[in-house]
Design brief:
By secondary structure, the protein is of the alpha+beta class. It is 23% helix and 32% strand. The strands form two sheets. Strands 1, 2, 3, 4, 5, 6, 7 and 8 form an eight-stranded mixed sheet that branches. Strands 11-10-9-12 form a four-stranded mixed sheet. A hairpin with a 2-residue loop joins strand 10 and strand 11 (180-182).
Length: 222
C-alpha cells in the first residue's frame, strides 16, 4: 500500500517491454477492423504484484447478460463521448465493473485495435500497472458475477493450458485459473501477451477439448 505523500512504485521493466512489443505486434487479418465499421471499445489489462507474483485482473460476466454471458473477460466496454478515448473508457468501465480506484493505476501503453465480429466492436487493449491495489468486487451485479486477480504463474502452468474446440470446428487457446475457464477473445489476447512478455512456458498445444455444453449454451445467446 502506498501512503499519502509517497511516490508509488514504478511499473516493472518487463511491463514497459511488453507495452513496446505489443504496440508493434501485427494484427492478424481476421482481427483487423473493417473500414467505417464497428463500435469503439476498450479493455483494461491490469497487471499487479500479488502474493503469488505478477497477476492480472479478470472479471466473469453475468450469466444473465445478453452478450458474452458468463464469459471471463478483461474489464471494459464501449468508448463514450466523455471518455477522452480508449484509456478513459477502460478505466471508467473497470471502476464501474469492479470498484477499482483509477488513481491506483498507471497506464503504460495500448495495443493496436482488434475487431470482434460477433459484437461488431473495435477493441483497444489498454495496458496498466496496479501500483496501489485496493479491494475489488462485482460492483455491477447486472453485468459482472465475479472479479479475480489471477496469478500469471497459474495461467502459464502447462496443466492449465489447452485449446477449446467450437462445434463449428474452430479451436482457440484457453486457460484455467481461479475457477475460471478463459476462452474466446480474452484468451486470444492473453495467449499473445504471455508469449511476447516472456512469461509463457512450454505447453501441450495438441491438448484440445470441446467447449463445455453449459458454456456453449451461454455463448449462443448472442
Amino acid at each position: 500500500m502506498t501512503h499519502p505523500g509517497t511516490t508509488p512504485p514504478p511499473p516493472p521493466d518487463w511491463l514497459y517491454d511488453l507495452a513496446r512489443r505489443a504496440a508493434e505486434r501485427p494484427v492478424p487479418p481476421v482481427m483487423r477492423p473493417p473500414d467505417g465499421r464497428g463500435r469503439r471499445a476498450a479493455v483494461l489489462l491490469l497487471f499487479g504484484e500479488g502474493p503469488f507474483g505478477p497477476d492480472i485482473l479478470l472479471i466473469q460476466r453475468s450469466a444473465r447478460g445478453r452478450r458474452h454471458a458468463g464469459q471471463p473477460a478483461f474489464p471494459g466496454g464501449g468508448v463514450d463521448p466523455g471518455d477522452d478515448g480508449p484509456i478513459g473508457a477502460a478505466l471508467r468501465e473497470a471502476e464501474e465493473e469492479t470498484g477499482l480506484d483509477p488513481a491506483g493505476v498507471q497506464v503504460v501503453g495500448t495495443m493496436p485495435e482488434l475487431y470482434i465480429w460477433r459484437s461488431d466492436n473495435r477493441v483497444t487493449p489498454v495496458l496498466g500497472w496496479w501500483h496501489t491495489p485496493g479491494t475489488v468486487h462485482a460492483a455491477s451485479p447486472d453485468e459482472v458475477d465475479a472479479v479475480e486477480r489471477v496469478p500469471i504463474a497459474e495461467l502459464t502452468d502447462p496443466a492449465n493450458r489447452l485449446r477449446l474446440r467450437h462445434p463449428s470446428g474452430h479451436s482457440g487457446p484457453a486457460f484455467r485459473g481461479r475457477g475460471l475457464l478463459v476462452w474466446g477473445f480474452t484468451a486470444g489476447v492473453l495467449d499473445d501477451v504471455l508469449a511476447i512478455s516472456g512469461f509463457e512456458r512450454p505447453w501441450d498445444r495438441d491438448r484440445v477439448e470441446d467447449l463445455p455444453p453449459d458454456v456453449l449454451d451461454l455463448a449462443a445467446r448472442g
